[in-house]
């Protein structure tokens, strides 16, 4: 009997095997759409929806183990141990992904305060609410944002804060790269907002040196701009864009850099030749190996800069980065 026929026979005759096969199929599907070539071809909404099925796979796998696994039935102690472990794991997911977001959104009552176009295809959304000074958000972090309109309430998109939280408002800035981000321009003030987060470790809490270099590419400037506002000590900001007109939030960066005594370099031009090659970075920041480096931008730029940093012998512990690879 061939392997496929054996699998079908097991699924039909042994309790729990069919659920295991379905769980395996879901895991393979999620793994497939996580590949870089697939992510580039999927809208964020589709990618996120498929990944939600991971929870289904976990539950199916658990019921399979209960049905046919000896681990759960070897002894009363083993049964109690594994049930307790699964309960804690699933309970943590339940609290973190459902209870905590519901509690925070009920507490803070988030609403859109204003929608401000930054360029032809970039928009900033200002969100206000109650007691935002008690929301544990830091510059550099992101939220999963749902704008509760009739046609968009079900979509959650990840956008970084583009300004350091001030206890009164939260600001996100996004480029129209997918259906969700393109629709931001049409959101009306007063729209209710449901936000999950904050997420991410791209914050000043992880710095190891007194001085920093902030490297942004394209719309990856959003968390960099927020970080510059919060960072203390001298910073060098390098903003890589195709042309001057692509440099969103540049005026804010310039004013912040001036106020904080930081340096700002706007690097424009096509991807080739590489204007962030090791020699160029060393010219802009001669002491780069003695600074923390915060990077955020599209994958090709990120990979190039990370390679340059390795050649310049910047210690790995001083490199902090956030990638933007899915259109929202």
From TrEMBL:
Source species, domain of life: Bacteria
Domain FAD-binding FR-type: 105-205
Cofactor: FAD
Annotated PROSITE patterns: FAD_FR
InterPro entries linked: FAD-bd_FR_type (IPR017927), FNR_nucleotide-bd (IPR039261), MRET (IPR050415), OxRdtase_FAD/NAD-bd (IPR001433), Riboflavin_synthase-like_b-brl (IPR017938)
Keyword Iron-sulfur attached: yes
Swiss-Prot/TrEMBL keywords: 2Fe-2S, FAD, Flavoprotein, Iron, Iron-sulfur, Membrane, Metal-binding, Oxidoreductase, Transmembrane, Transmembrane helix
Record-linked SUPFAM superfamilies: Ferredoxin reductase-like, C-terminal NADP-linked domain (SSF52343), Riboflavin synthase domain-like (SSF63380)
Residues passing through the membrane, by range: 20-38, 50-68, 80-100
One MF annotation (Gene Ontology) recorded for this entry: metal ion binding
Database matches in PANTHER family: 1,2-PHENYLACETYL-COA EPOXIDASE, SUBUNIT E, NADH OXIDOREDUCTASE HCR
Name of the protein: FAD-binding FR-type domain-containing protein
